[in-house]
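Thread: sanity check for a docking pose with adenosine-5'-triphosphate

Original post by kr_44:
Hi all, I'm comparing my docking run against an independent structure prediction. Below are the sequence and the ligand SMILES. Could someone generate the full complex and paste the structure tokens? I mainly care about where the ligand ends up relative to the chain.
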Amino acid sequence: MSGTAPLLRAEGLSVAFPGGKDWLRAAEDVSFALAPGETLALVGESGSGKSATAMAVARLHGPEVRVTGRLAWTTREGAEVDLATLRGEPLRRLRGRDIAVVFQDPGSALDPVFPVGDQIAETLRHLNGATRRAAAEGAVALLERVGIPDPARRAGEYPHQLSGGMRQRAVIALALAGQPRLLIADEPTTALDVTIQAQIVELLQDLQARDGMAMIFVSHDLGLVAGLAHRIAVLYAGQVVEQGPAAAVLSAPRHPYTRALLDCVPELENEGAPPPRGIPGRMPSPLRPVPHCRFADRCALAAPACREAPVPMLEVAPDRASRCLRWAEVA
Ligand SMILES: Nc1ncnc2c1ncn2[C@@H]1O[C@H](COP(=O)(O)OP(=O)(O)OP(=O)(O)O)[C@@H](O)[C@H]1O
Ligand SMILES: [Mg+2]
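Reply from moderator J.T.:
Ran it for you. Here is the predicted complex with adenosine-5'-triphosphate included:
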């Protein structure tokens, strides 16, 4: 998709939370580009800064959070605006409409005291000014589109009457109400069991391909994103450490951390091997940023040079970069 003008370009995006006397640097200098219809996976261990980054794009951080950098967004009219500084009506128009978000816990997006169909209809009325009747029909159509069987009946049910998987489908229907150009899905399947996970991933993939919607899919699981992502950005301790086309990153990682994450995915690489044990060691604290390669303490390839200075992103192939001095030796 490199021929298409990007929908979104994040340039040097940093997110810091107030953390006592210092800032807690959750994401630092994150850059990526996303074309219309493209899926970017943000992958990394717990605490690597995936949600902090995704929430910055959706402008969901409160005023106490320090967000710097640029988020160049191409509007439907073809103009470029900076999402990071957008305010007032233009921001409201974008949020919930052009950019929609689906979180891990489907419960939190739905109001327990209203039938799901009513909640979607209400959103349609609010976003598109639909009549009551058109909104009710639109809600049923959206429930059908996300694969809920017998959608007209289900529309009248309350969230607690739906299974976890069906609830997450309803949340996705709600997210689609504004016909978003970008869907941000933050661990949308983590609360679901494995077979349902696969179904939701398939649904998202299907919707994305059919509607040409762009997607940022956040996950700690490289195995899950393998079938879904066009591009992958691997985050470690708040930094992107590797980025490139999904197939290339998965088949020939160029950062030892990506390699280690892949070794944690049994079905991808280790068939018949003992179960993966996770990556030994711990990620450095975001309160005390490491002034050199942040992965060095857990890295078998670490050399003295890795502990001397911060490592920049190095171009290792066209459209591919790694924050590793020894990327050529990653096997
Ligand atoms: N509201 C907050 N206030 C202070 N620190 C926060 C807040 N939210 C996240 N953090 C910290 O920021 C860092 C990055 O967190 P983030 O939620 O982005 O990680 P993540 O990659 O999404 O992890 P997970 O896989 O657990 O969801 C972590 O150290 C986390 O503790
Ligand atoms: Mg998260």
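The chain has a mean pLDDT of 91. Hope that helps with the comparison, let us know if your pose agrees.
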